[in-house]
Amino acid sequence: MAAGRLARSIKSDMLYKFLTSPLTVCAAIVATILILCALLSPWIAPHDPFDTATVDLMNSLIPPVWQEDGDWTFLLGTDDQGRDLLSAILYGTRTSIAVGFIAVGLAVAIGLILGLLAGYLGGFVDGLIMRVVDIQMTFPAIMVALLIDGISRGILPREQHDQLALFVIILSLALSIWPQVARTVRASTMVEKNREYVQAVRIIGRPAIVIMLKHVMPNVLGPVLVIATINLGVAILGEATLSFLGVGMPATEPSLGTLIRIGNNFLFSGERWIVIFPGLTLALLVMSVNLLGDWLRDALDPKLR
Q: How far is CA 209 from CA 118, 120, 188, 213, in A?
C-alpha cells in the first residue's frame, strides 16, 4: 500500500513538473508530431520519392511553392532527381527514427545485461567487462561506428553493401552506445545488491539470475531510461553523420543524412532548400528528444523532488 502511494506521488510530481515546463511541453509536441508524421509517411506523403516509376527528372530543382516558379504539387520543392522534398523528408525521418530506436534498444539490452553481471558478480567478471568499457569509451562514438562500418565493408561482398547498410549502421551505433549503459547499470547494481531486500532473497536461496532479473533490474531501470532517451538523439544524429559522410545509408534509401548530403552539393548554387529543410527537420527532432531527456533526468532525480 505504501509503495503504491509512493508510486502515485512520483507520477503526480512528474506530471506536474511536465505541465509546468513550457519548453518541455513544446519539445514533446514537436517530437510527437515528427514521430507520427514519420510513422504515417506512406499514407500522408504526397508522393513516393523513392519509386523510380513515379519520379520525373523534368521536375528536378523546382523551388518551394512560395518562391517564383514554385509548384503546388511540390510544396517544399524537389531535389536534383525530381523527388518531392516533403515526401523525402517524411520517409527519411521514418528511417532515422527507426535506426535511432532500434540502435538504442540494442545498446540498452547489451549494456543492461553486462552491467548487471559486472555489478552483481564483481571480481573477474566485473574487471573484464569494465576494462572493455574503458577501452571503448576512450574512442569517440563516431569513430567506433566508422571502424565497425569499415570492417563490415571489408568483409561483406560489394554487392551486399547497400542491402545490409541499415543493419550495419544499427549495429555500429549500438556498439558505440552500450558502454554508457553498462557503467550506469553497474553502479546502480552495486548499490542495490547490498540492500536488505536483496540480502533477504539471497538468504532464502534464490538463484543469482533470478535475483538480478526479478529484484535488481527493476530498480536500476530509472537511470537507464534517462540514458536511452538522451542517446536516442545521439543515435539519430550519428546515423545522419554517417550517412552524410557517405558510409551510412545509400543515396537510394530515404534518410535525413543522405538528404542533407545530397543537398550540400547545391548549397552554393542557389537551390538551398534541398539542404535547409532536411537539416531543420533533423535539428528539431534531435533538440526535442534531448530536451525531453534532460527533463526526464531532472524529474527522476530524487534530490530535486
A: 13, 10, 17, 6
pLDDT per residue as tens digits for the range 218-265: 888 888 888 888 889 888 888 888 888 877 777 677 788 888 888 888
CA angle at 74 for the pair 68 and 78, rounded to the nearest 5°: 85
* Sign of the four-CA dihedral 139, 119, 102, 79: negative
* Structural domain boundaries, residue 284: 22-44+73-304
pTM (2 d.p.): 0.84
pLDDT tens digits, 195-219: 888 778 788 877 878 878 888 888 8
Q: Distance between CA 173 and CA 203 in Å, rounded?
A: 41
142: its cell numbers: 563516431
In the chain the first and final C-alpha atoms are separated, in Å, by 21
- Domain of 286, CATH number, reads 1.10.3720.10
What 3-state DSSP class applies to 74?
strand
